[in-house]
Amino acid sequence: MFDTRELGRRPGALKRVSRSVVAPKDLGIEVIGVREGATIELDLRLESVMEGVLVTGTARAPLTGECVRCLEPLERELEVDFQEMYSYPDADDRSREADTGDDAEEEDMLFLEADLFDLEPVLRDAVVLALPLQPVCREDCPGLCADCGARLADDPDHHHESADIRWAALQGLAETMRDGEKDNAPRERGDDSQEK
């Protein structure tokens, strides 16, 4: 929770805050995210406006995950910017009087509670939306061998001599035909003259 009491309700009042916070649980997606308990560095700018407090900030957090191609562990640094408006509790009453008619917008509003605001939902949205959906250890990662699972980056010349089992019978027939052609090949003329 962050305190806005120093700002008061004076529009234009400004306060800058730098703080380190502990990452909450499940801050990420299946393959990459911020480990629970990791340190997130926040630089915030709190600005008092007529309706509430406008929070603009930057979060820096260490990411851990795995490459989606080769499954190797990877670590990255994420920096994400965000901005959110925290309305005064009585701003809801004023907006009802104005009757904007946009119920969805009212549901998405965040409010100050006793001059305090909780940044976690905003931080969670900003971080998760900034994560790569398909993280890779490097852009040209070749991944894993489809046959044996070997990491192709470790052995670039890795390959298998494999035939599709659906074609195995035809391959056997082709080899039989090649062997038969060798047996039936015409002999050279020099061989014929020696036999006479």
TrEMBL record:
Bias (Basic and acidic residues) ranges: 176-196
Top-rank taxon, per record: Bacteria
A Pfam family recorded for this sequence: YceD
Residue ranges of the region described as Disordered: 173-196
Entries under InterPro entries matching the protein: YceD (IPR003772)
Protein's name according to its UniProt entry: DUF177 domain-containing protein
